[in-house]
Amino acid sequence: MIGLAHELQYGGYQHVVEADIRGFSDHMDHDWVIKMLRRRIDDRAFLGLIRKWLKAGRLDTDGAVQYPREGTPQGGIISPVLANVYLHDALDLWVEHVVKTRCRGRVLLCRYADDFVCAFACRAGAQRFYQVLPKWLEKFGLEVAPEKTQIVLFSRSRPDPSTRLVVLGFELYWYRTFRGRVQLMRRTARKRLQRAIRSITDWIRSHRHLPGREFVKELNRRLLGHDNDDGLRGNAAALWRLHTAAVAAAFKWLNRRGGKRRSFTWDAFKRALKRLGVARPRTTEPSCVQSQLVFA
């Protein structure tokens, strides 16, 4: 995320193609998987085991055994590795050796698993990529979701504060400082933040029976874990929103524990949190980073 933000800020890109592959893990072609692995692995016995693993039967909800013709098992131990190999050959190499050589200006592909964006310095390159991408991925048994695929004008030279680019659960947008400098900002995407709030609220409700110090210790682990993932510079508002929701949920559910415990007043509850040391939101992104984008 740091490398992508640095490239969009200073790389001179004008347009970004957002794309979504529909049901990627369920539509990986088994023959293509083996063909891609064969380029790297010269072991027929091992490749045979991979093919058997891909073809292994899966127990359906009605008790019937289904033998898949495509896709990899959800939660399979090597499914992420195979998925990365698949898109590296189907997408990364194509962009590197074909798209970049036929476009004017710079081209940047940023991919994590099947979530990717491609930035272009010229609009013609972005339009050509947008038109050809569905046909190219169709060769590998993959389908682009048209409703989630679009070209976005996302340029530092022509910033539009209303434009939001969602990448890996974060919103990227342009912001003009009081000194007139255009700065790329990042914040947690709305759906991701809502999921995080629901998750920590559900945990608080189901673990309200824990003793006070143990409850706060486990709560802090979750708050700090969220900060480690989302503690980007400029994202303080989203961090505080989750913290506020967690404190409100704790006040609600700790006051509903059984027994003869006296309920907290809000002031007494805040003093207790301060005494027990509930973690406050913090930015975890270093102030000075040697930014680089890893091509995946």
User: Please, what is the CATH homologous superfamily of the largest domain?
Assistant: Reverse transcriptase/Diguanylate cyclase domain
Radius of gyration: 24 Å
Label the structural class.
alpha+beta
Work out the count of structural domains.
Answer: 2
- The end-to-end distance, rounded to whole angstroms, is 13 Å
Can you tell me the CATH architecture of the largest domain?
A: 2-Layer Sandwich
Shape: flat
Sheet with the most strands? Answer: 4 strands, antiparallel
In the CATH scheme, the class of the largest domain would be Alpha Beta
Record the strand order, biggest sheet.
Answer: 4-5-1-6
The helix content is 40-55%
Low-confidence stretches: 289-296
Report the strand count. Answer: 9
Give the averaged pLDDT, no decimals: 88
Strand content: 5-15%
* Number of helices in the DSSP assignment: 9
CATH topology description of the largest domain? Alpha-Beta Plaits
- The SSE string, one letter per element, is HEHHEEHEEHEEEEHHHH
Sum this structure up briefly.
The protein has 9 helices and 9 strands.
Describe this structure in words.
- The chain has helices at residues 2-10, 30-38, 44-55, 79-102, 123-138, 190-206, 212-230, 236-254, 266-276; strands spanning 15-20, 58-59, 65-66, 107-112, 115-120, 150-153, 165-167, 170-176, 182-188.
- It has 296 residues and is of the alpha+beta class.
- The chain folds into two domains: 1-187, Reverse transcriptase/Diguanylate cyclase domain (Alpha-Beta Plaits, 2-Layer Sandwich), CATH 3.30.70.270; 188-274.
- The strands form three sheets. The chain has a four-stranded antiparallel sheet with strand order 4-5-1-6, sandwiched between helices. Strands 7-8-9 form a three-stranded antiparallel sheet, sandwiched between helices. The protein has a two-stranded antiparallel sheet with strand order 2-3.
- Helix 2 (30-38) packs across helix 4 (79-102) and helix 6 packs parallel to helix 8 (236-254).
- The longest helix is centred in the first third of the chain and has 24 residues, at 79-102.
- It is flat, with a radius of gyration of 24 Å.
- Mean pLDDT is 88; it is low at 289-296.
